[in-house]
Design goal:
13 helices, globular, about 300 residues, alpha/beta, five-stranded parallel beta sheet, about 45% helix, two-stranded antiparallel sheet, 9 strands, Helicase, Ruva Protein, domain 3, single chain
Length: about 300
């Protein structure tokens, strides 16, 4: 099974001149992960989020995170029904296939942490009851740089739940000119090119992409390098290793292969590893990810 070319074509028609971030975003979702998009306001973060959900044919809700937002505003509340003599749970916007958490770092750490169980286990616990979330369940969060006014840095445990953190940056001049001329598709007019069953099949195909023992040894060498290098603020965990492998399989799948190459790991490594190595973007540069990659030379037979 292969990815329909129309999916990438439609996404690239919405985000002009952003082929690599679009491919990384799709790669993240096909691997079953969650996506964090960090950049300045007005660079297309929310547009990309809407386009991904609409193109994949998934139900979604957009939540604008604010400083006065409470966990119950996201998860839902139990309401006492006097006529029945019991509490009924009223689910919040978290109970959707795609949650667009817009400007997630404008909410307090308490509200941000409400996402932890949902992103890790696909469920939430309220008043001693566990409620499963829809399947598939994706969080696509956007955030402004932490030096922007009114933002709270995401806790490390929250950052680790995101498979990828990407930035969009400014479009090339030619693409921005097309944007000014109104040539970009509006996400409100997009047609769904996939459904839940089709997405599930694609995810299963991604999971079946092969990784050789030599390839796994290369990945293990990268993990070890991150743990041995004094220059790296934080080492990569086993969970990070699983995320790197899953994303590399998705990247290989998008390239039309059923096996992973070192080049696939290199392509996704900055997006998957940098926010785990260092929570703060260093001037837009993937500094520590590049350092770890440069310390390990893959020798595959």
């Amino acid at each position: 099974m292969t990815l329909p070319n129309s999916i990438l074509k439609q996404l690239n028609a919405v985000l002009l001149g952003k082929d690599e971030p679009v491919r990384l975003s799709l790669c993240c979702l096909l691997s079953g992960g969650h996506l964090l998009i960090e950049d300045l306001p007005g660079t297309g973060k929310t547009t990309l989020s809407h386009a991904l959900a609409a193109t994949l044919g998934l139900e979604y809700q957009r939540v604008q995170f604010t400083s006065d937002m409470l966990p119950a505003d996201l998860i839902g509340v139990s309401i006492y029904r006097q006529e029945h003599g019991h509490f009924d749970f009223q689910p919040g916007p978290l109970f959707s296939q795609v949650l667009l958490a817009d400007e997630i770092n404008r909410a307090s750490p308490k509200t941000q942490s409400a996402l932890l169980e949902a992103m890790a286990e696909g469920q939430v616990s309220i008043d001693g009851q566990t409620y499963p979330l829809p399947s598939p369940f994706f969080v696509i969060a956007t955030q402004n740089p932490v030096d922007q006014a009114g933002t709270y840095p995401l806790p490390e445990s929250q950052l680790d739940r995101f498979t990828m953190r990407i930035t969009l940056g400014f479009p090339p001049a030619a693409a921005e000119k097309r944007l000014l001329k109104g040539e970009a598709l509006a996400h409100q007019t997009l047609s769904p090119l996939l459904d839940v069953a089709g997405l599930t099949e694609l995810q299963q195909a991604v999971a079946s992409v092969r990784a050789s023992d030599d390839l796994l040894d290369y990945l293990l060498a990268l993990l070890k390098a991150s743990r041995d290098m004094a220059e790296v603020p934080r080492p990569l965990s086993p969970r990070a290793g699983k995320a790197i492998l899953a994303a590399a399989k998705a990247w290989a799948f998008l390239a039309g292969r059923d096996y992973v190459l070192p080049e696939d790991i290199k392509a996704i490594f900055p997006a998957v590893a940098e926010h785990r190595l260092s929570p703060v973007v260093q001037g837009g540069q993937q500094a520590y990810a590049s350092l770890v990659l440069g310390a390990v030379d893959p020798v595959l037979t």
